[in-house]
Structure formats: structure tokens, C-alpha cells
Amino acid sequence: MAASIGVIRDRIKRELEQWLPGRQIEQEAKRCGHRWRKRKLGPAQTIHLLLAQLLAWNTALTAVRHLAAAAVTAGALCQARTRLPLMLLRRCCELVSANVAQQAQRFDWCGREVLAADGVCYYTPDTPPLRKWLGSKNRFGFPLMKVVTLFNLSSGVMQHQIPLPHRRGEAPLLGRLLRLATPAAVIVMDRAFASFANLHAVLQWPGDAVIRLNSRLLAKKNSLRRVIKRLGKNDLLVCWAHPENRCSLLSRLRWNALPAELTLRQVSFIVARRGCRSRRISIITTLLDPAKYPAQKLAELYQRRWEIELQFRHVKQTLNWEFLRCKTCEGVKKELLLRQIAFNVLRAIIAAQADAQETTIDRISFVDTLRWLIYSPTQPTPMRPTPMRPTPMRPTPMQPTPMQPTPVRLMQSPHRPGRSEPRRLKRQDKNYLPLNCSRAEARRKAA
Q: What is the pTM (predicted TM-score) of this model?
């Protein structure tokens, strides 16, 4: 039986209080210099209500009054969100990410943490400030925001988000990502990040990187990339020379400060899937020790990069967070930080379940975790009622025994390595024409 609104409110409030207590929010607000009056929607109440709204499948703000069991209007909640300092949300986001990462910390690849970075796009409301900042794919489309996201694949935590216009590439932001990333970790990235300047930045970082290579960047004769030593089959120690043409994103001073050459490791492997053509994938890495990091281990590590795409699917489809709702530039930044906090609270529940079931975090179903948070009653299923001894004259009704709490066991996703599905849609979209003019003009034409 579905849970009532009160049960949903109590469970979400309990989970939020565990990872982000209201007292801690108020302490961080004071440190940020934020002042507020004693009112119904203070900083702690506002943040908790907005997180509950996001966890309830991004329901409308008009439905928050049911979650809060109080007369809270959507306009009042929007004004309360506007009053929140951006620095306060950043501090709360850092605290939750650090607490969850510490609890769910796992060194699951050669004794090291695994990170992954990639970009994802979200739609925003069509307002002049957002259109000026972000731009859109076409003249009458919604503004599109690209968010470079850093995930910790070992714990499932979303560590950082960097918003930018959708036409900007994410490769120039690698230096900023490395400053935000966990030291001594291994970061996995796609071929957009493979460049001489980025690889030099990785070598200056205390961790390492595994990046996919474009075919034109492979080491070969008469090129800037030559083979130094053969470490094994399809395993090469290579040297990258300083390019002659300066990158337009770097100043001449920074470009000339780069070293003359870099010593890296290039590994190639074949990915064969049933029903698909075999593909040859080449990666470049700063992990130079073939004994400690074999080529097979590196191939398995890069295949884990697909996990970040699954996280984006959960964010966009499972949680229904594909569209941002705030209409200002600062508002969408606050909404991104609130989403990060809510996502990491779910990852904390998954990490606790993985420990209880003695399995890995990728086996615990994300969808089932969200369903448990929304639908499951506060108390577990009660035991069978025990009837009291009836009297001969008047039978006594059955009295249930007190409920005994039982551990919740969430579903595990089946382990299906190498699974591949065609990227085709069987269910077709609605047969509506695209909007090629403003909405006001479309109304005049339809009248």
C-alpha cells in the first residue's frame, strides 16, 4: 500500500537530518554572514523543503505545501530560495559530499579511488538573462546549459558541477577539475580531454588519468608522438613532443612554459560484443608501471567510464531533473547545488545498503532506492496478529502485536557484462510540428 504524504515527509526529513542537520545549516549561514528573521521559512526549513521537492520526482512547488503539511505557497518558497546565499549552498553541498564520500569510501581499483568527468546538458526557462548567458541550439528553442560533472565512481558521489554555455567545450576546464578532485585518485575521461596541455596538467597533479585517444593522436612514425619502448602486446611507452602550433586557449607565456616532451603510456584493446562489430579502443595514461597496472586492468577501468552515463540517466529520467526551473542565472546555480545534495543523499542510502548486503554500490538499484524513499511505509510490514483468548460469552477482537523493525533490503540489479541494446525508439513521438516562431506569434496564427 502506498505511503501517505505524512509518511513520505517524515522519512525524507529523517534522511535529510541525518546528512544535513538543520542546526548545521544555520551555523554555516552565520559563517557566511547571512542574516535572517525568525520566520516559517528560515534557511534550514527552506533547504529541506526544496530537497524534499527534488526527491519527490521534482514535483511542482505548489505541491510542497502537502509535503510540508503547512500553508506554504510556491511564491513564498521562491522568495525564500532567492534569499539563500550561493555561498551557503556551496558549503552545504561540500559538507554533504564529504560526509557521504567518507562513509562510502572505497578503493576498488588497485587500491585507488576512481573518478570520472563528463558534460551533460539541461534545458532552462526561456528568459532574456539565461538566453544571453547560455544561448540555444536554434532561435526559438530553450536555452541549453552544459554542466561539466565530476563523479566518484568508487562511492557514487557527485563531487562537483561546473555550469557553462552549451557551445563551450569541457576540455579547457580540466585544470579546474583536477583542483577540485580527490588527490591520488585515478580520473577517467573521454577523448575530448586528450591534448598535450591537459596531459601535462595531469602529470603535475598528485593523481593519474586514463583518457581515450583519437586515432589521429596515436604514436607513429614521422609524427610528434613516437614509441620509446614496447611494454607488451598493444602496450607502448610513448613520447609526446611539444606541438608547434599554439593552442588558442593558452597564452603565449603559458604555452612556452610547457615542457619539450612528455613520457606517457599508450594501451590499445579490442572490444567485442555479440551482434556488434569489434572496436579497437586506444587510451593514453600516466600510469607507467606495467607490473602494478597491467593493460587488462586499464581496459577494465576505461570500460567503467560508462557508469557516468548511467548516473546522467538517473539524474535526467529517474529523478526527472532534465529541466531547470529557475529563471535567473543565480537561481539555476542554486538549483544545481540543491540537486547535488539530494543526489548524494540517495547515494548514501545506496552505500549503506551495499554494506548491509555485502555487495558493490553498482548492484543496488537506484530506482528501487527512490521508490523505497517515496512509497515504503515508515514501519516494516507488521507481523501476523496474535488473537487474545476469547471469553465464552463475548469474543474479544484480535489485537495486533507491536511491529518489530526488520532491515530493509533493496533490490539488486543483475550483473550483465557486455550487454548492448540498439539505440532505437519503438514508441514514436507525437506528430506535432516544431515551433519555428515565438509563442505569441503562433497564437495569432492559430486564432
A: 0.88
